[in-house]
Fold each of these.
Amino acid sequence: MSAPGGITRATLAKDLRMEWRSKDAVNSMLFFSLLVVVVFSFSFDPSSEESRQIAGGLIWVAFLFAAVVALNQTWAREIRNQVLDAYRVSPAPATSLFAAKVLGNFIFVSVLEALMTPLFIVFYRLRSLGPIWQLLIVAVLGTWALVVNGTFFAAMSLRTRSREIMLPLLLFPISIPAMLAMVQATTAILNGEGARFWIVLIATYDLVFTSVCLLLFETILNAE
Amino acid sequence: MRANPYLFAAYFATWTIHITYLGIIASRYAKLKREVNDLKQD
Amino acid sequence: MKKLFPILGILSGILLSYALYQGLVVAPTEQTMGNVQRIFYYHVPSAWTAFILFFVNFGASIAYLIKRRPAADMVALVSAEVGVVFCTVVLVTGPIWARPVWGIWWTWDMRLTSTLVLWLIYVSYLFLRRFSSSGETPVLAASLAVLGALCVPFVYFSIWFFRTQHPQPVMGGGGSIDPRMLHALLVNWLAFSCFAFLICWSRYRLEKFEREVDHAHAMRSLRDPATNIEREPYSERRA
């Protein structure tokens, strides 16, 4: 179990088991994004033909807000019983803890997306003019971008006063290019246009930010 | 040259921002000076 | 060092007045826009200065992460704060120029949007500095600064592509620029860089002074616990 992969697997399994028993994160995210869907439906006519033009933005805003709910809980749980302090003194590499948390959050947000997407299709009468598999790629890459940065900034805002407010303040500005790319790609595919540029952009963004977050996480964890 | 309200507004806004910021620095500096003086008197 | 400060102050005062004269009197009036174009002499130099300061912030943050010197952290803080001030000037003078020339205060044009996003990133940096507890602030802030700086190319690239697909009214006329206009622009830039350096220096001195006072308080309460009054250190209260 001493290999970094083993530690990642153990932490991930623990998080998944805890989530499976309580279902706190997924339930609160689901309810939250449901609220966003309902509130948005008041601001424009969801059944009109133009709804396809804004659906991309709407879906991602709902997922972004919902993801923040789950991300805020990621580390709070570990603080309660001084698990994080234990982690700091243990010889286990910090990057494997980070990888486990990112993977865990990725799974939670993906579950949320899988459950919410049918609802979006029904409520906003969506029908994609472009290929579905491209939407799947955008969803995976986009979710990864949100989750990597979100997990990192959640660990950062853990150290601040009023940490629940801090996470969106840090996460949203840095995520703007990724959000723009996700929204544009989704809208383009829904309307049957090409989205290659945006997909490449998110992939590059993912690559850069994943490596830098992995590099800096140990510094953040041990910041004193 | 003829005075232009937009031109005037832009230059005025620029200096208002800079002077406000300098004012904040100066007031913090003055407060600090006072505190140091109080410390020395103790 | 102490003598250099007032000299620099006087120098930047002279430079700024000379630059104002250059911009308002010597530079010729632009034919289509008229005098409004002279906003350009404040707007563009402020933008360049802000970008340089953000770049300094990036360098200082990396230096801090490697060497952990408090001075690097202070440089990072000061450059980000003054950079945000100059970026605010850019964002305020821009719409004032756009209103008479384009007829609108704001457009989601490439440059405007990316400058706004840049401003948001560095404001969030200052928020983090204000909200984190003093001991950890430098490391957290330096990490955020690195991520923020890495984000800048993505911001420019994505918004550039976004806006070239949907054409909008953009900057009027590229073409050649009158040498007197260029001269006025460069003089203004020199003057504002000098001024920015001066502000950064005074802000740096303030920061250093505050940290010294905090340190003195901590030392005194260690020596004599009776003097341990309830006091919030400067590093944790931001006016």
Note: Chain A touches chain C at residues 149, 152, 156, 159-162, 166, 169-170, 172-174, 176-178, 180-181, 184, 197, 201, 204-205, 208-209, 212-213, 216, 219-220, 223-224 (CB under 8 Å).
Amino acid sequence: MKSSRYFPVFLALVVTLTVSVPAYAYLDPGTGSVIYQALIVAFLAAAAAGRFWWAKVKGLFGRGSSQSTDETEVE
Amino acid sequence: MAGMTIVASSFRDPDGFVFLHDGVLYRQVNDRCRADYTRLMDSGLYGALTTAGLMVAHEDADVPSPQPDKAFRIIKPERIPFISFPYEWSFSQLKAAARATLRIQEIALRHGMTLKDASAYNIQFRNSKPLLIDTLSFEEYKEGEPWIPYRQFCQHFLAPLALMAFVDIRLGLMLRDFIDGIPLDFASKLLPVRSRLKMSLLIHIHLHARSLTKYGDSRPDTELAAKKKKMSGRKVKLQALRALLSSLSSAIGGLSYKPEGTEWADYYDNTNYSDGAFQDKAALVKEFIARMAPDSLWDFGGNTGVFSRIASEQGIPTVSFDIDPAAVEKNYRDCVARRESNLLPLVLDLTNPSPALGWQNEERESVVQRGPVDAAMALALIHHLAISNNVPLEKIARFFASVCRSLIIEFVPKNDSQVQRLLSSREDIFPDYTREGFERAFGALFSIIDSREVSGSDRVLYLMAKAGT
């Protein structure tokens, strides 16, 4: 995972600092965790979209994104 | 309620519980879980997960309930041969369990459901693969809801894996102290600064921990409480939830561990056994196992599982315990690579074995409580217990008598080069450590059925049965 890839979307995190959701499950999710989750998903979704469009752009110029970050797994 | 016991670990979830009836394991589905259970079965999720080998299958059962007023249904899940706990798993076992949990969550979302908890204790290993054993872990997914077990997933899986990968493999044992996973602020403190350069760990551990601390203040009527209230009601869209799961999956996938360099992981490269002696020992072990024909076997000091496989390859459910996480890691990787059945490698320090843990010390059973097993094996182990750890032979015999009905055990005499190595740096305070002393100690609790010298060495392999069985 490259940190630089996330830089533009990190800005999205900064401007989305207003969130949380009520917790009503049998498991206490932790207030801080729920607030935090609602914050970071915006960032992560933007990062995912960024990756998707970046792959498209690279595709346009004939540079297929065959690179995979996932290692061969023991599972 | 004759013959019925509610399993002590299943008290948290109000949706049901597990109980034993005449030694058979059942799960009660409580009436409050009727809708979710019906959705699990009717949505195709149950079929998808059991077909993929990700969840334990079950059938409806017709037995009396210990709490009939709450019962909607009673089911009989397939029995898992041996229940193990995350602090006994190697790195790759914990990682496989984490990935299975995320995959289950993704499949659940496709069927309109979500995991309501992500406890590592809900995962068990069968035939070298992780599977979910808690059939009642699902509830209806409502668009906009956050993933409730996010923190639990990070505590149970990501934090210990990161600590094992970045700091020391032995930190997996911390799960013994923290039964609900490693607190994220603690993990954040222990991890090196360079872990913050990894975006996934920065997000899911370091910043996550800071947020938990910041919003952990539960006093009402404060500015923070007002802010928290204001923030409530924000939705997490499905697409965003998927991005979270994908990010967690990358975080887990990006952690690795190379098992090498420890004394035991390289054991068979450094042992003084000649090929002939090794083959002879293997043949003797095979013969003794065949004579016992056990229905299950625990191999203590199993290292990378070379001798454990003599049992597991004959279809005997076998647990291969070893103190060294690198050896257990190698063993598990071999199990996966060869798609092996019947073998479960686990980390266990026999001088301080997994204790009973949790509420009233009843939630997680000790190793001894999970026995007795039909047969145990202790090859090239006794000198480590008796000499390295100063355990008298009588106490060693008593331990084995408490965990097994029959025993294959190797006596390694003082003149053996491995024992000489152990004695080279200390005074010999073990006058009773002789073959006669060994037979006296074990003969008090076991009948010695056979004993054979391992050719090319002075070691002796014994076959014993617990007296009175």
Note: The two ends of chain A are 21 Å apart (CA to CA).
Amino acid sequence: MNRRKSLADRIVQNRVWKSVFRQGYPNTAENQSKVVVNSWFLHIHPVKVRRHTLKITYTFGLGVISFFLFVVLVVTGAWLMLFHVPSVERAYGSIQGLETDVPFGILMRSMHRWAAHLMVLTVFLHLCRVFFTGGYKRPREFNWVIGVVLWVTTLLLSYTGYLLPWDQLSYWAVTVGTNMVGSFPGIGEIMRMALLGAKEVGQPTLTRFYALHIAILPLVMTILIGVHFWRIRKDGGLSAPGEKSSGERTEGS
Amino acid sequence: MKTKQESTPIFPSDPRKTYGLMELVKGTSPMVDKGPEETVMSWPNLLILEVLAGLGTTVILLFWSLAIHAPLRDLANPDVTENPAKAPWYFMNLQEMLLHMHPALAGVIVPVIVIIALMVIPYVDRNEDDVGVWFASKKGRTIALWSAVYTTVWIPGLILFDELIRVRSLVPGPEIYPGWVIPLAVIAGLMALLYVMIRRWRPSRRETFVGLFTAFAVSYLLLTISGTFFRGHGMHLVWPWDLPPGALPF
């Protein structure tokens, strides 16, 4: 037995460290289990996964990548909220100021923008992957439904954010989009008014889209992502070939 | 004498807690009958891949954002209409459809039907035998490929027809015909034709869905590309290199 403890041991074996991470370093099967179940961040994972789950050509990591893009969007978005003013008079100027006066302003705004575009893409590719591998089948039917809702939520989040800079691109994009809704026979104009909060795209629209973009839709998204991930574990991990051969699945398992 | 394994149990029971059998439940856990040889610990096997995916995503995004800045056009001006005025690229598929049918059909009814159809899939295709196999089977792969080719021929063909010959010049009105009846008849007719052709392979329900979903995904892609990269002034067809400045919605 070593008389002297290494520096690493001193760090991971003192009381402060152990108050944060209840188990020792995860180099034994026991600790590797505990590190997952004891961590709020990791407990959404199962302790063990099928080898097949790790196959890159099965998932291409699209779900995880979409999730990371969402995290990037939350972080950069929160940062952008410190500078953006959701007012028709000042929104555009606040974005200009962000680009000229704020350190890393352009970078953070660009990352937010491109991550949003990329997420629209990866979420749809993820949907295609799950479809083409038959991952929607029992017992995962409902998680597929949640996934479709998540795809739509992603589109709505991206679209509501599009208006916030209040430039020509955003103004006309929202005008075009809401006109399509407004053309619906009968209730179209009511739906359009509900979206715009007025007859034309204006301050009420910006206020609504802002509230949707920074509070309501992210909340919906976060809850649905939580349920989506939790259901993956509850439904027995990712789909894999030959699952049914493991015997009859009882209802509700 | 205790064996080594007995003296160091993997999950020692905690002497400070009491354990008891509370209830017997009939059923299997999702991982039942999955031998340990088929599974690995999530830490580190899964987590390392997740970390790599996260890092890779962040690095690519960082360099992309350093290279290309997010656009910021002129201040919004209700009096100056952008020409063309485009939705974000991911809605250009709808805006492309808008050129060929009533806006309510393109912007609300078709997307809502697609979303509902997607949600219904698992409740119609209930056979669990082919889970986890890409395109269900070799036959499914052939159907998907064939469906993709079919869609790739029809969508640009229809777009060109409506641009060069124009349905509205053949059937000027009343609006119900060029706006609703003809587009719906074309969509339904092409889907029915695709369905009949897929049936020739005697497919399973899933293989049929693979064919139909492929047609949806390819239409979605082609309409997005057409709307985004091939529509210039007045939303008329142009080559991507002839697009007027500002016609790309990003």
Note: Residues 38-67 of chain B form one domain.
